[in-house]
Amino acid sequence: MASSKRDEFRPETRRHLAMRAGFRCSMPGCGALTTGPSNESPHAVVDVGVAAHIYAAAPNGRRYDANMTRDERRNIRNGIWLCATHSVEIDRDVVRYTADVLRRMKNDHEQAIANELNAGRGFMRGADLVAVGPHVVGVGELLGTSGKNWSVRIDHFVDGDIRALIDFSERFDAHDPFDRYLVVNALGDGRQLATEPSWLRRGNSIELMCTVKDRFPCVDAHKLGATLATNAANDLFVENGDIGMVSGIDALPQRIKETLSMLQGESPFHPKAGSRIKEYFDEFEDSPWLQRRIKLEVIRLACVPYRDRVQNSAYTLLQSVLRVHDVQKIAAQRDTDWQDFRFKLDVQGVGPWEQVISIFLPRGDRPLRHPMWDQLPNK
């Protein structure tokens, strides 16, 4: 007897499908909004969206492909975001809604959302991503500041929810200081939080009140220390009999490359260092969310001080970056593990600075976390 076990999407995959669809049904002619406020409580949300499988999740499904692996069935590429009504319709009419039809439907809808998003229309109008720690991200904007008090509006959560925000505040002192931050995409900047944020509801939005720490000092780019250099092929090279080195302003591209190319959690000695860019790239490639997610990550690495327990010192991982104006993926068919990005930054001691830098993004599944990671203290 065939197994009835379903290969369901992971919660983060479901959330990312909804984001890519703009939280609207992908069925042509529908476009219904699938999430909104509930009257049950100030933090309750109504969610009528469905992360539907293009190829069925279980053998009893009518579009089941036995040649697919479990991971392939659970992959975001095998999903389409629909309202509850149309998720039922596509399962009852598999002659009309073939896998090819559903893929085209998904691609057309995501492209329409991308066009709307990039044109500044729709629910993102006048707003951008705001992050409060690593697990709470919303669409909103900075309302104002008064000294070290920052006020931020969140119109819609894209990672986490109001419960995650409450948990972050209640357990604030238990979090690693590197995870206590407020990052505002539209500002190209952020700060480490001094105390737990408070919030209140304003209509359908959440207003956050945050007390932040002073901006962590940046290093003049002309004073950056020496580091190993790589050539155009991203390889170390020998120059005058010695391994190539760069320092000062010439070291800045290399430091950006090194920081962003290391996956967070990859190093057992620096478990919090590195970036989450591969995670975002895998989920949001070819989506306008990718650029916003990567910009948010670069800002975090530029403004939040990292405590180096090996050297017993603190510094931002992108030591000389004052502000992040833009991070753009250079469109290209990727046939290697390297991806070019154009960085537009304000740099200490230099001012406006722009350069294309290759970042290492290994294709395939994310490597397993090093076993020594869990043996290290969190503080």
User: Which stretches are low in confidence, meaning pLDDT under 50 for 5 or more residues running?
Assistant: 372-379
Could you say which structural class the secondary elements and strand pairing correspond to? alpha+beta
- State the end-to-end CA separation: 51 Å
Major sheet: order of its strands?
A: 9-8-5-6-7-11-10
CATH topology of the largest domain: Nuclear Transport Factor 2, Chain: A
Could you walk me through the main structural features you see in this protein, from its secondary elements to its overall organization?
With 379 residues, the protein is α+β, with helices and mostly antiparallel strands. It folds into three domains: 11-122, no CATH class; 126-211, no CATH class; 221-375, Nuclear Transport Factor 2, Chain: A. It is 23% helix and 28% strand. The protein contains eight helices and 20 strands. The protein has a seven-stranded antiparallel beta sheet with strand order 9-8-5-6-7-11-10, sandwiched between helices. Strand 19 (338-347) and strand 20 form a beta hairpin. Helix 7 (277-284) packs antiparallel against helix 8. It is globular. The model is unreliable at 372-379 (pLDDT under 50).
